[in-house]
């Protein structure tokens, strides 16, 4: 019984931390990331998570033909410069910010509707003995009103 | 390097949160059994939020087809009084969201205001706090003349409601809103195609194949919900039709116009959808939509 209680307390503690993390992520996204979409119109999809240094994350998005898009990959300062790549369904890399001075957004359009995978890599710390850092990473998509 | 998908991180959050909400008498079972179940469930929900287009995007692509506005297509805002269960309210939150976007892109101001009022009512009934829903809607009324502001505010409304629901372990409600929005966007699209031949719109309907696989994952996860259970046979039939539609792409080439500085991913796609498949999709969407709004 004691073990069960301890387990539940532990889960409650971790869940509390996760709740705070998600809430802070939402605030970070609203204040620090969404302004970077301007003048593009935010599509309303909230894709954010707390990542640790050395983590790799990916997600798949659908982009519609002849729409102008901006993708913003926005990371908390403590994570440093985050690498992001767009890869098509054949595995071909169509963009990486490593070739563009680690810029945190990319503007583009697609000739045909297609799915692209966004891969995000958080760099690992080179300093030994430091605690692993973690922070919010948000991926936002905006489009232009072409009318 | 560790390889962690975002979906798993969100899954961790929800499975932990799910565990502590269970009754004391089943604490041990909850910790050992529900952990995996909740992880898979949330993983699926995150995936759908990545892949299903918001109502804003659907109506934007419809507008690109230059179809005339049809005021008989949206669900009447007065129907809002017909919905009382949380599932019906959530599904029709999505429906009205798509209708609002459809009206707004055609500058139908009076209709837009009616849909705003309906959404506000549902937001209150779903107990989404003012600052996450209705407060934002007030701003829409103040900015009704500015299309870009409206899109931004609608996007914030969806994000706010979505974020609030997920933070409060109400991911089913969040998923129902998205499903309702998807169905209404499709309903508008298939009906517009009934009155004209438009290859762009036809392609857009076929391309929902991308969203559909993820939609079915959510339908499967929540089939115990009575509202979802009622719709499941129709969605399964729709799945069979979409499985027959083929979309292939040529190799991607990224080209930047030196004058405009616009970068384009140039590749052609080949879409194969037959008139019979379109007819079946249309009939099924009409039936699903009827179940949701009636």
List keywords for this structure.
heterodimer, A: 147 residues, alpha+beta, Jelly Rolls, four-stranded antiparallel sheet, disordered N terminus, B: 294 residues, 2 domains, two-stranded antiparallel ribbon, two-stranded antiparallel sheet, 12 helices
Give a brief description.
Chain A has 147 residues and is of the alpha+beta class.
Any overview of this molecule?
The complex is a heterodimer of chains A (147) and B (294). Chain A is an alpha+beta fold. Chain A has a single domain (2-143), classed as Jelly Rolls (Sandwich). Chain A is built from one helix and nine strands, in the order H-E-E-E-E-E-E-E-E-E. In chain A, strand 5 (83-88) and strand 6 (93-96) form a beta hairpin. The longest helix of chain A is centred in the N-terminal third of the chain and has 32 residues, at 2-33. With 294 residues, chain B is mainly α. Chain B has helices at residues 6-19, 27-51, 55-63, 86-105, 109-125, 134-142, 147-167, 171-194, 199-206, 209-221, 226-244, 275-293, and strands spanning 246-249, 253-256, 263-266, 269-272. Chain B starts with 5 loop residues before the first helix and ends with a helix. The relative contact order of chain B is 0.12. Residues 1-51 of chain B have low confidence and may be disordered. The chains are: A alpha+beta (147), B mainly alpha (294).
